[in-house]
Amino acid sequence: MPPEIISSILHRLHHVEVMLCADKVCRSWRRATRHEPELWHRIHMHDHADLRGRGLVDLHKMAADAVLRSEGQCEEFRGEGSCVHDNVLHFISDQAPLLKRLILNSCREISHEGFVEAIKRFPLLEELELTACLMVCSNEALETVAVACRRLKHLRLGHLSSSCLYYEGEPDDRDATAIATLHGLRSLQLVHNELSNHGLEAILDSCPRLESLEICRCRNIFMNNALQAKCARISMLRLVRSSLSPRFRLNLAAPPPSTRHRCTLSNGWLI
Amino acid sequence: MAAPESGDGNNGAARMVTLISSDNTRFEVEAAAASLSQTLQLTILDGGGGGGDGIPLPNVDSATLSKVLEYCIKHAPAAANGGAPNATAVDRAELERFDNEFVNIDQSVLYSLIMAAHNLEIEGLQSLVAKKVADMIKGKSPMEIRRTLGFPDPTPEEQAEMNAHMLEYGWAYE
């Protein structure tokens, strides 16, 4: 089979599958998986629990090997679950200097220190997602991001809902304060964040290029006239209400009609 | 540039070209359909393939060529519209349905089709068969992939070499 065809097939398989199976098909397939950096420009590693259960694969080393195969050309790394820990992240920061997109979802083995050290070495980063990485203290991490990643345009920050269920404290604008220092942001998505209207207003004031804003289940956000006025310039605005917030429920009775045309209906609540 | 002999565009009739398979079967087809092949396109633009000449394709047998041309004839109108930006959803759905059925074929035919699409450089067909193969091998073990694609079982030496490489990577404990 000609190398171009093998490559075309491999491009349509998942990275984990390429490494586990295609690699072992025959010599020419192996050559194609190892010596084609293009195949590894965008790496997506997720937890193959069934494989780990069989004790056949070290997902950490596998993720590192995938990055190595990109020969320094990796632009996107998406890691989910336990396939990424501090050493892997450190390795990526070492081997992927051109990284533009870093997506970490439920990577509970990444420590705060590990994340902060690694993120300093992604000067070209344009997109960052940090979802349910419990050990990373988001507001402090974002302060480092603001200094190290001057090109950041897209941020998604997601916390677990459990904190909302059990925590009944005051609004917390520390994440918002850090986000407000990311002046080049074009899009922002916050999930289960404790920020207040004040925090969101600070972000809107400090990020003049923000054009897409998604606020999901942030129970301390209360859409009033002041916030509405500040959101007027946002072309893609989406708010998903928190089922836990009594204030949201109260607000449901009188949705401001003037902004309806710009907003996405989500979970029955229209701002 | 030589003038094509048979039915040129002046009177609205489509220009035809003749393709000759490796087993000497002649296929007459619209130039627009054959031109989906990058390999044939230049020859056809230069006026080749018309009249009694025909373009010989020594690497493609008649069974495969007839299958390839079935694809080209179906896709030619959309390709003529420059990827069919104004195609309706119905047209696109119809092409998609055709594509799905088209690759629903025996593994040996698929393999010949892969090689023909490659040799004739028909971009859309190359993607279509690559996608089909990828779908066929998803979730399969290396040995199953070999069998799916009709590769012979590895020799003991080849197997030992593969195992050694996997250990070298350090992440496979097998």
Question: In terms of topology, how is this protein built?
Answer:
The complex is a heterodimer of chains A (271) and B (174).
Chain A: H1 3-10, H2 15-20, H3 27-34, E1 42-45, H4 49-53, H5 59-69, E2 76-80, H6 86-95, E3 101-105, H7 112-119, E4 127-131, H8 138-148, E5 154-158, H9 162-166, H10 174-179, E6 187-191, H11 197-206, E7 212-216, H12 225-231, E8 236-240, H13 246-252
Helix pairs in contact in A: 1-3, 5-6, 6-7, 7-8
Chain B: E1 16-20, E2 26-30, H1 31-34, H2 38-45, E3 55-56, H3 62-80, H4 89-102, H5 107-120, H6 123-137, H7 142-148, H8 156-169
Parallel strand pairs in B: 1-3
Antiparallel strand pairs in B: 1-2
Helix pairs in contact in B: 3-5, 5-6
H/E element string of chain B?
EEHHEHHHHHH
What would the principal axes of the Cα set say about the shape of chain B? elongated
Helix content of chain A: 25-40%
Question: SSE order of chain A in H/E notation?
Answer: HHHEHHEHEHEHEHHEHEHEH
Quick one: which chains have the greatest interface?
A: A-B, 30 and 32 residues
Largest sheet: spatial strand order of chain A = 1-2-3-4-5-6-7-8
**Residue-averaged pLDDT of chain B, rounded?**
83
Brief write-up:
The complex is a heterodimer of chains A (271) and B (174). Chain A is α/β, with parallel strands linked by helices and 271 residues long. Helices cover 38% and strands 14% of the residues of chain A.
What does this molecule look like?
The complex is a heterodimer of chains A (271) and B (174). Chain A has 271 residues and is of the alpha/beta class. Chain A has two domains: 1-35; 43-262, Ribonuclease Inhibitor (Leucine-rich repeat, LRR (right-handed beta-alpha superhelix)), CATH 3.80.10. In chain A, 38% of the residues lie in helices and 14% in strands. Chain A contains 13 helices and eight strands. Chain A has helices at 3-10, 15-20, 27-34, 49-53, 59-69, 86-95, 112-119, 138-148, 162-166, 174-179, 197-206, 225-231, 246-252; strands at 42-45, 76-80, 101-105, 127-131, 154-158, 187-191, 212-216, 236-240. Chain A has an eight-stranded parallel beta sheet, covered by helices on one side. The longest helix of chain A has 11 residues, at 59-69. Mean pLDDT of chain A is 83; it is low at 245-271. Chain B has one domain: Potassium Channel Kv1.1, Chain A (2-Layer Sandwich). Helix content of chain B is 55%, strand content 7%. Chain B has helices at 31-34, 38-45, 62-80, 89-102, 107-120, 123-137, 142-148, 156-169; strands spanning 16-20, 26-30, 55-56. In chain B, strands 2-1-3 form a three-stranded mixed beta sheet. In chain B, β1 (16-20) and β2 (26-30) form a beta hairpin. The longest helix of chain B is centred in the middle third of the chain and has 19 residues, at 62-80. The model of chain B is unreliable at 1-11 (pLDDT under 50). Chains A and B meet through α1, α2 and α5 of A and α5, α6, α7 and α8 of B.
